[in-house]
Amino acid sequence: MNKNDDNHVNNSKFDLVIIGTGAAASTVAHECASQGWKVTLIDSRPFGGTCALRGCDPKKVLVAAEETMDWNTRMKGKGISHDANGIHIDWPELMKFKRTFTRPVPKNREEAFAKAGIKPFHGTAQFIEKSKLMIIDSNTYDEEKLTTINSATTTTAIQGNKDVEDWIIEGKYFVIATGAKPRPLGIEGEEKYVTTSDQFLELDQIPKEIVFIGGGYISFELAHIAAHAGCKATILHRSNKVLYPHFDPDLVKGLIVKSRELGIDILLGKEVTKISKKEDTSNKLIVYSKSSADYDVGVENRLSSIETDMVVHGAGRIPNIDNLNLSAADIEYDNRHGIKVNEYLQSISNPNVYAAGDATLNLGGSPLTPVAIYEGQIVSHNLLSNGDKNNSSSSKIKPNYSGIPSVIFTIPTLCSVGIQELEAKEKGIRLKVKHQYTSSWFSSRRIGENHSSFKILLDENENTILGAHLLGHSSEEVINIFALAIRLNIPLRKLKESATLFAYPTNASDIVSML
After folding, report:
1. What are the φ and ψ backbone dihedral angles of 421, each rounded to 5 degrees?
2. Which of 44, 55, 47 is closest to 29 using CA atoms?
């Protein structure tokens, strides 16, 4: 495009400017465009967002291969025989299959925007005042040292960047839905030697040894995938509690046992302090860590080390907002929690700005795709309420985060919804706890699952479910029934009555025995 004015910039005005093209952004864009708004989206990376390109969807494709391996192992001697060759994951073929899901996304997403009358821009957005931002050419945007989508799918983005260089975008309203990125670790060697989860999901070959930093869901999920692919996986976590406080510690113990049986080394109380490359031709990395026990006894300089082929960042993510120049638009934010919003997901300092998804976690939402979509729906409604002269501010709606399940896609899966037992005790909530190990149940025995359990938290009168925590096969499906019961406040009696009629024998039919 030619530069038209004396300042050598192109200018456009929109009713709504959205930064990001993931789940939250797409939801808002399509809803507002369908109501006749002039909408644009801006993204510096291939269109589609984290879930579709770099997160849950491609990860779940790899999990399918992992499940196949685990089924064969669990059913050995139970009607399934292994020959001398056994089975193994062909990693290059698996990645080729995975890319059949990710490669079409940017093109398909952009075509869908265009069909809906939404204007797409490729580039990095930076605010220059309250109602304006500039799109800066970001051609080889490398914020997370991303190796993703190394195919024709990047062509459009690169060409697009050249097209929109030096554009000024003016908007009546703005939505920030830029997602999250790995939090800085602040350790020596981080920039040179740490691989992100995004990069892991694009590996052409799986190394023989990987160290995962952090004991969160990312490390556990990727370590399980790596272990089933024949990799020696190690998790280093600085605390003595992993997956805390989001998952029940009693069920976490079962997952740890299963993980260690797979060959995953889980080292607790290990704070990584430095990563360096071994000074020989092996290309090995050395990961140095301090033990929390050393701090307790006043020993500060004692380091332990592990040699490995790769170090993967699994130590949490933060909102991806630091390059937006938010202060220029009077947008208050926190680097850890994102855009500061009110109960309507509206900026507390600039009322024409909203935020959704991982870019804001102020209200108690979780970094989950369903939450991003839900918040996108909330923002859409509230924006349209602003634009409708017949509607008052009282027509705005607030998000309700009750009954939202969380799942760790390990094998077996670990799930949680509602309140945690420790949290309830700290808040003085009186409850009844039903906790049982279920490896002897038919649903577990028939598939050779030796690590399954549940914990159900009921109010003290056993009228309603306050929390449900599951470890086992298909628990990621069963947890949705508990989530619905909590969100709709379904009485325990009615849930149990309905569960009696669930299809049998299924994992969902076990709910009767859990209650």
Report:
1. -60, -45
2. 47
Give the homologous superfamily in CATH for domain 190-315: FAD/NAD(P)-binding domain (3.50.50.60)
* Contact criterion met (CB below 8 Å) for 461 and 474: no
CATH code of the domain occupying 406-514: 3.30.390.30
Model pTM score = 0.89
Which long-range contacts (C-beta less than 8 Å, at least 24 apart) are formed by 451-456? 451/254, 451/255, 451/257, 451/258, 451/412, 452/254, 452/412, 453/250, 453/251, 453/254, 454/251, 454/514, 455/248, 455/250, 455/251, 455/421, 456/482, 456/514, 456/515
Q: What whole-number distance in Å separates Cα of residue 151 and Cα of residue 240?
A: 42
Note the pLDDT tens digit of each residue in 469-487.
Answer: 999 999 999 999 999 999 9
Confirm if 27 and 373 have CB atoms less than 8 A apart. Answer: yes
Extents of the domains making up the chain: 10-49+113-182+318-395, 190-315, 406-514
Q: pLDDT averaged over consecutive 10-residue blocks of the chain (515 residues)?
A: 47 93 96 97 94 94 95 89 83 97 96 96 94 75 35 34 65 96 94 96 96 96 97 96 93 97 96 93 92 59 88 94 95 92 95 95 76 96 78 77 95 96 93 96 95 96 94 97 96 95 95 96
Q: From CA 205, how far away is CA 92, in angstroms rounded? A: 6
Beta strands in 261-352 (DSSP E): 265-268, 270-277, 285-291, 304-308, 310-313, 317-319, 333-334, 338-339
Q: What is the DSSP letter of 508?
A: G
Phi and psi at residue 50, to the nearest 5°: -65, -50
* pLDDT tens, position by position, 458-472: 999 989 999 999 999
